[in-house]
Design a protein that fits this description.
The chain is mainly α and 90 residues long. It has a domain of 36 residues. It contains two helices and two strands, in the order ββαα. Strands 1-2 form a two-stranded antiparallel ribbon.
């Protein structure tokens, strides 16, 4: 089985995995070095963050389903349970 995990490789050859993994036993890996700028976390200003949040908030309520209960989580769960239990045998 192959599993891909993003990692950073230091100039000394050390490998830092960027996401957690679970292995059942010691495993081998193939490391491919991607030549380019080092991975850096982009920092944004508070003003840019607020602006992005404002742009995102403009989409709130943009879709009207026509069903007043369409955002009712319990009703959604019931519908999902019905769909999964339906054998579609008629």
């Amino acid at each position: 089985m192959l599993t891909q995990v993003e990692a950073e490789v230091g100039i000394d050859g050390s490998v830092l995995l960027l996401e957690p993994i679970r292995l059942k036993r010691r495993s081998r890996a193939i490391v491919t070095i991607i030549d380019g700028d080092p991975v850096e976390e982009k920092q944004i200003s508070d003003e840019d963050a607020r602006s992005a949040e404002d742009r995102f908030a403009k989409h709130f309520g943009a879709v009207e389903s026509g069903n007043a209960n369409s955002a009712d989580n319990e009703a959604i769960d019931i519908d999902i349970a019905k769909a999964y239990s339906d054998t579609h045998d008629e």
